[in-house]
Amino acid sequence: MLQFLISRLFQGLIVILAVLCITFVLLKMAPGSPLESERNIPEHIRAQRMAASGLDKPLPVQLWRYIVSFATFDFPVSAKTPGRGVDEIILQAFPVSAQVGLAGLIIALGLGIPMGALAALRPNSFDDRACMIVATLGICTPSMVLGPIIATVLGLKLRWFNASGWYDADDWVLPSLTLGVIFSGYIARLTRAGMRETLAQDFIRTARAKGASELAIVFRHSFKLACLPVLNYLGPTAAGLMTGSIVIEMVFQLPGLGQHFVGAAVNRDYDLAMATAAFYAVLIISFNLLVDFLQALLNPRIGFKS
Fold first, then answer.
1. In whole angstroms, what is the distance from residue 144 CA to residue 81 CA?
2. pTM higher than the cut 0.85
3. Range 158-170 burial, b when 16+ CB lie within 10 A, else e
4. What are the beta bridge partners of residue 85?
5. 3-state secondary structure of 48
């Protein structure tokens, strides 16, 4: 197990380094600079500010500065928000995105797994087709469409919740419900596929031949293996949900982390853009490591292989 963890952590560090390099190259290839919007400042002041930010250095030196800064947790200050470090901006916005994303993930699992299991246990029946139609609708409905519908019905018409903003303790409900409905479709289809494949295995037929009840077959023998495709999907999905859905945060006017992913690139805030990309990579690697660990526990044939 120790070798497994060390191997995964080493691979994760390589991925984070690659993400930083790719993000840096893409930012430098984009037109403009952090001082482009300030057109009236004198040239010598512009040069001083570029030197203070380290933007006058060669590109490899600038990239190395970012790598050392993040590795030593000595985070830079945002170029567009003077006096605030990028770590402070991320830590302030992330709890909002994490609360909405975690609740959305729970809703997606609560809706998707029962739908998928019901469809798998009754193949080619009305229940199967109905569940898959609902799942397909959830997948095909864009968040920019479903979000305003939910906000209009539950927020403006019924007035159960605030239609937008982050003011009350229950303002997470509508954005989380939107995310949960959309992602429940993917989880339902994965659960159905995994359950159908598992129920067709020889050990399931053997369990039935030995007189095991259908309840025991489903929950004791097949459910663990049927959840493996869902676990694979949950790694990057959980990271994406918890770092903020840009469209959902714009629809419901949430002060989450998603706005900074776009805002940093648009405003040429290189420090914040690099920090958000690194933070997103760390979350994905962490959740994928957790998924690999759970898969090894649920499926002995996989084991803790490095």
1. 29
2. no
3. eeebbbbebeeee
4. 77
5. helix
